[in-house]
Amino acid sequence: MGNYAYEAYRHRDMYLAILIKGYDLATPILQSMRQPGAIRTAQEKVLKMHESNHRQDEWEGIVYYKRPLFSYCTYEVDLDRKIFYIDGIPFFTLECLPSDEVFLKCLSEDHYRNVACAVGCPPEHMYKRPALPVVDDSEFATYHSLVSTGTDVALSDLLGISDVLSPCEHIRASLLQTMIGQCMVKKDEVGGGEIRKTVVPTMHQFGLVSNHNQLTDQEWSLLPTSRLFRRYSMVIHLATHLDDERCLLTSISRLIDEILEQKDNPGEYFGIAFSIFHCAIVKVVKDTDATTFSHMGVLQFLPSFFADSPSTPGITALARLGYRIDSALFARAMQVFCVTNPKTKGRHTEAKEPLTEDAKDALPKTSSSVLPPELWREIAFHLRLHDLFAFGLASKLCRGIASILLRYPHIYGYRLVGFPKEQPKRLQDDYRFLRATSFLAVQGSIPAIVMVGLGGDIIDITSTFGGSSLDVRFSVHDVATPEENLIADSDSESAWMIVSVKDESGYEESILVWLPWCKTFAVV
């Protein structure tokens, strides 16, 4: 009877993990770490297990050399940063651990169903964030050496677009909000996908480092090997502490340097400074005589884990930046066209090869001038996605028309074209609206409602980094489907609970229970 969990100790990038079983699993660890000299004793234990150089079983303890992906709840003691974690989420400083009673009061869930520290936790027990990195003036020399045409520019001015989102931009922003919510939600609530085991701890890890170079182990499995990398026509710089002005200027300088190094032709080029929590967009204008730049102020990207809205200025800004006209859109869309893989039992995954060899830049010599463009566009609106790609291969005109439609998001062949007059009321339960949204959609000429984030079908989104994947649930419904049938009952129960238990002698105590792994317990 009881729960299974792991008791883990991190020291010098080694992890000593011990499988434990029982009802009250967390408080004994806290009690032992409150003892004088506990940190030093635990460090010596990790080193001793490492030096023994032989593999023990899980009950005695196993030393790992990167953070393991455990199937059970994990109580981790970081002996270097002096932090106590639950499931990779930082809670308390080891230098002032709470009493057992305060610990239970501080346990809560965030709005994405992850275990979390309650908002009212006494600040002396909270883990300490590191100091800002020291940034030398030379780090942002480029920023001051070029002509700036604006340092806190509105997005509409930076991109030359309207202040008001177009219908397609609204759809793209809403879908991106939902996908971010899918990354933030507890992994057991929405299905598998290797990326779910690390993505929330990685988000928190970014807030625990003084500078980018301290991201050394599990975090880098989801990131490229360099802070600067190109993504299609964009240059992206991964950074920390973008909410600090000197760190922001440093990141902007590095983006400008990279753009100037990579881009030889005159024109407008964009870069993104990104830290998970914040982002900033930079525009560099190169002409034959001079180079100028402008940038937005720093924007919040990641919603709070206790958010009441999935929207942030940063998510909207990146969604609108991605909506810009892109001459390579058609060819790239063909490369990532989603197909059904019959071997995966309803799971939908990205195609590994282009739909056809004709997806290359060379177009067949076919004339489409017999019909006016308006009629070709009307025809394209009634095509299924597979046929739309074939249509786009017919001529340059047809490719341009197809590219317009491909700017709308597509989910398994359904083009998302709008929103129902009202979102299902049950999305309000348990903050589901933070991680799920319903859209009006069409497949060819057939209308439908597509629920993204909930449902019985699954899309596997393969990550570019680390070979990870993210499973996203979705479902497709007839437009006449009653609202109460759009959402199943399986996404309702909390994953954590504090209960009272009695042992055989009648002794009663409160414990933390992780429901997916709790077989039996007595509630009093």
Automatic annotation (TrEMBL):
Ranges for region Disordered: 346-365
Bias type Basic and acidic residues, positions: 347-363
Biological source species: Rhizopogon vinicolor AM-OR11-026
Protein name (record): F-box domain-containing protein
